[in-house]
């Protein structure tokens, strides 16, 4: 979602009307969620491709909580069938940026069966998305019709269900973004609400959506820059600095662990769409079989199953009409409100920038020229960010129902095109849903005790030693004499640095590929502790620093309140 404000804010409805609109909104929202996602949420099946990996991640976390009462630190072992590129064959769970490390929904694991827990996780995120859209619409002064259009364009678009289908499940954290933006939407600066936005941004990171986290910061930063530039109010940027700093403090414990393990990993960004024909195909080509491999890896010059949006020609027609009218009015100085409608202009500019970043090798060349960290190596995904700027622009420009006949006819035609877009989304959803409900639970009743029992062993010669295993700690009972050798076939030697050893030390004269320990005391258990990168102390320090920062900024804001300029506002209003 993009930060913006309503171009023609409508008056706040009276209490009774507000309740009726809320009832209509939630009735439609629940119907949309059921129609678009019900087949997945109310089944015991999952999707294709990367779901083998994601289902293991969920099962590992679930049984760590249920059987051991622990947030896991290490996988200790990863099934050979899912040693995916994304894991880099690294055994650290806490350092993996694509797993759920923290979430307020984790307590559900203690009261729900596994598949119910997994589906509840997705379902509650979708409900949070609907709530966030409602809150954002109210903050921006949107009418009921605009709110419903925003709801469908956000939650019904093919991209989200498409990525859930192929097992990019962390992208469901996208549903937190409308609420995050709504917390920034007050006309006056409210530090507690901006701190809440930082908490939601950090939650996106802790729930494994690293790509989405990077996109969010790029989008907020770019919008703020355009908004401040167009208003000629650079003081606006300090609020963005507070959001960035507060979020960085909150994610520091996890980011430190990720960098510790993956810091040396270098990735070169790929290419994006290379022509307007490619772009048109990504937005409208619903005839190409999305999961026909290997052709889908290069259709429209990108990984089509990952980068396509398929919003349809009707959506593009709405965007062209509204953007053309806006630009024509701006050029002729026919503005619908006093002063320039800055949020709409900022949204359009940001959409164009992200569209350009996804073109050809533009992003790769920028990363090379400015030594940018290449957290996003698939620039064609920037088209998705541009889409969200575009849908906010569309909803904002639709405005309230006009009084004149010509205006009503024009707006009615635009809503008709929006309705055709919704039908396009529905048709695409029906094509994708069989793939999202294709496979049963790969792992069945997954048990970490059994999983570890077959893989986590300690050997003294040919003798298998007694061992007690949890995701965070392993206790080995050695033969008894100091200097005994213990081989750990499951632990590669180059990953031994991710563990601490009590009662033994690693030696270098064993087989090259595995870790060998030498006991340092007789009749004493050897304890192997997965390195949590000081997760506990850093977490406490981060929360304390976040609270102090929020209190200090709140005190400063009360002492030096900013003026409220007349005219059109902004979500980042100064």
Please characterize this protein's 3D structure:
The protein has helices at 15-41, 51-68, 114-139, 144-155, 158-165, 177-183, 191-206, 210-231, 237-262, 276-284, 304-307, 313-331, 342-357, 362-370, 382-398, 405-436, 448-455, 535-559; strands at 459-460, 463-464, 467-469, 473-476, 485-492, 499-502, 504-507, 514-519, 526-530. By secondary structure, the chain is an alpha+beta fold. It has a four-stranded antiparallel beta sheet with strand order 3-4-9-6. A three-stranded antiparallel beta sheet has the order 5-8-7, with no helix packed on it. Strand 7 (504-507) and strand 8 (514-519) form a beta hairpin. The longest helix is centred in the last third of the chain and has 32 residues, at 405-436. The protein starts with 14 loop residues before the first helix and ends in a 15-residue tail after the last helix. Mean pLDDT is 86; it is low at 1-10, 335-340 and 562-574.
**Oligomeric state of shown chains:** single chain
Mean pLDDT: 86
Spatial strand order of the main sheet: 3-4-9-6
Low-confidence stretches: 1-10, 335-340, 562-574
Compute the CA-based radius of gyration.
26 Å
Order of helices and strands: HHHHHHHHHHHHHHHHHEEEEEEEEEH
Count of alpha/pi helices: 18
The beta-strand count equals 9
- Give the proportion of residues in helices: 40-55%
Query: Termini distance?
Result: 20 Å
Structural class by helix and strand composition: alpha+beta
DSSP strand content: 5-15%
The biggest beta sheet, please? Answer: 4 strands, antiparallel
- Principal-axis shape equals globular
């Amino acid at each position: 979602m993009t930060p913006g404000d309503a171009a023609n804010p409508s008056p706040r409805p009276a209490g009774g009307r507000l309740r009726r609109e809320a009832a209509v909104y939630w009735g439609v929202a629940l119907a949309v969620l059921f129609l678009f996602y019900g087949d997945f949420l109310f089944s015991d099946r999952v999707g294709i491709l990367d779901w083998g990996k994601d289902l293991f991640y969920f099962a590992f976390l679930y049984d760590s909580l249920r059987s051991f009462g622990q947030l896991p630190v290490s996988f200790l072992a990863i099934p050979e069938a899912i040693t995916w590129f994304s894991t880099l064959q690294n055994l650290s769970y806490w350092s993996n940026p694509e797993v759920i490390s923290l979430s307020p929904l984790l307590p559900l694991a203690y009261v729900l069966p596994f598949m119910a827990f997994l589906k509840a996780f997705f379902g509650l995120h979708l409900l949070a998305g609907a709530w966030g859209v409602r809150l954002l619409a109210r903050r921006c002064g949107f009418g009921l019709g605009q709110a419903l259009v925003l709801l469908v364009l956000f939650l019904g678009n093919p991209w989200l269900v498409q990525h859930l289908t192929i097992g990019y499940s962390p992208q469901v954290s996208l549903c937190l973004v409308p609420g995050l933006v709504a917390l920034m939407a007050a006309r006056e600066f409210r530090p507690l609400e901006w701190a809440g936005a930082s908490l939601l941004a950090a939650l996106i990171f802790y729930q494994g959506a690293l790509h989405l986290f990077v996109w969010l910061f790029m989008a907020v930063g770019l919008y703020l820059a355009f908004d401040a530039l167009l208003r000629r109010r650079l003081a606006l940027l300090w609020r963005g600095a507070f959001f960035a700093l507060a979020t960085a403090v909150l994610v520091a414990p996890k980011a430190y662990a990720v960098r510790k393990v993956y810091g040396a990993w270098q990735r070169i960004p790929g290419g994006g769409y290379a022509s307007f024909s490619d772009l048109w195909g990504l937005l409208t080509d619903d005839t190409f079989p999305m999961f026909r491999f290997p052709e889908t890896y290069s259709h429209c010059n990108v990984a089509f199953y990952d980068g396509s949006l398929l919003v349809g020609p009707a959506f593009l027609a709405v965007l062209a009409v509204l953007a053309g009218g806006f630009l024509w009015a701006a050029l002729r100085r026919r503005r619908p409100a006093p002063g320039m409608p800055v949020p709409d202009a900022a949204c359009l500019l940001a959409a164009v920038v992200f569209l350009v970043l996804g073109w050809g090798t533009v992003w790769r060349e920028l990363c090379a020229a400015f030594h940018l960290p290449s957290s996003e190596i698939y620039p064609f995904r920037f088209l998705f960010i541009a889409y969200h700027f575009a849908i906010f622009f569309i909803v904002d420009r639709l405005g309230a129902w006009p009084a004149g006949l010509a205006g009503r006819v024009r707006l009615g035609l635009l809503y008709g095109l929006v309705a055709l877009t919704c039908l396009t989304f529905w048709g695409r959803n029906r094509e994708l849903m069989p793939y999202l409900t294709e496979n049963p639970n790969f792992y069945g009743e997954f048990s970490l005790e059994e999983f570890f029992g077959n893989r986590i062993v300690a050997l003294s010669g040919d003798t298998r030693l007694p061992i007690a295993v949890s995701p965070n700690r392993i206790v080995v009972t050695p033969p008894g004499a100091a200097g005994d050798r213990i081989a750990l076939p499951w632990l590669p030697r180059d990953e031994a640095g991710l563990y601490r050893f009590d009662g033994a030390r690693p030696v270098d004269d064993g087989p090259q590929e595995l870790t060998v320990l030498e006991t340092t005391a007789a009749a004493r258990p050897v304890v192997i502790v997965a390195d949590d990168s000081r997760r506990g102390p850093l977490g406490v320090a981060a929360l304390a620093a976040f609270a102090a920062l929020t209190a200090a900024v709140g005190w400063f804001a009360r002492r030096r309140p900013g003026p409220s300029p007349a005219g059109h506002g902004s979500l980042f209003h100064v």
